Amino acid sequence: MKKIKEEKVVVNGNKVSTKTATNNQEIANDFYKQTLTLLKDSPTPYLLGGGYAMYEYTGIVRDMKDLDIFCKPSEYQYHLKYLNDKGYQTEITDARWLAKVFQNGYYIDIIFDTVNNICTVDDSWYEHAVKGKVFGIPVKFLAPEELIWCKIYVQNRERYDGADVNHLFLKYGHKLDWKRLFRRMDQHWQLLFSQIINFQFVYPADRDIIPRWLFDELMQRAQHQYELPASVEKVCRGPIIDQTQYKTDITEWEYKVVTIKTI
């Protein structure tokens, strides 16, 4: 009898059988469900992001390698203490933006900023949160505008979230608060413009999902920038979207990441 070759998939960089992958996901889901149940009774608020928020807004199903919990910088310590008291292992991974909670090899990210310190969680994030359920547990999802705002800065070699943003535009664009998203991206409007151009390339039949007023405003800004003088300082803003690939620009080509002038 011919032996049937066991199908394998890649999980966290390792090849495992589909059965093992399924079992691992079930164990992870139990961990996430247990944690969300505990957080439901916590006095400290939080928002749910990551793959679960993507599913809420786009319907895209993916294996959840972790759980993304968002809260204000002043709140993450309370989440860590609360879950540590419940038997979880905790760590402050990066005091600028990230903490983690572990149990039996699985983990949860507690996010209170972004690695570039641009998308700091504040009260307005809670005010615009979207109610829903995960594993039957009531939760509040990160608003789609904040989800896009965070993801649009993730353009690393190792991870690029542009496809996620395109899917959010496609599946939730008719409900998006585009004016609010525009305000969020006002300082770095070029990133929003480039993402919109990317979206229209990927989905030419769906270009009208992007409001015409927004496209016209961004196009006008792009044209008007040539009427202004170039920056005196040689600045590279690459590290805002990718923290590894612009090292040469800073260390060898004498571009500056931050310019500070004293008077």
From TrEMBL:
Tell me the protein's name.
Nucleotidyltransferase family protein
Species this chain originates from: Pontibacter fetidus
| InterPro entries documented for this protein | DUF2204, NT_sf
Q: Which residues form a coiled coil?
A: none
According to the UniProt entry, its GO molecular function terms are: transferase activity
Keyword match ATP-binding: no
The keyword Transferase appears for this protein:
yes
Keywords attached to this Swiss-Prot or TrEMBL record, sorted alphabetically, are: Transferase
Instruction: Name any one Pfam family assigned in the record.
Output: DUF2204
**What SUPFAM superfamilies does the record point to?**
Nucleotidyltransferase
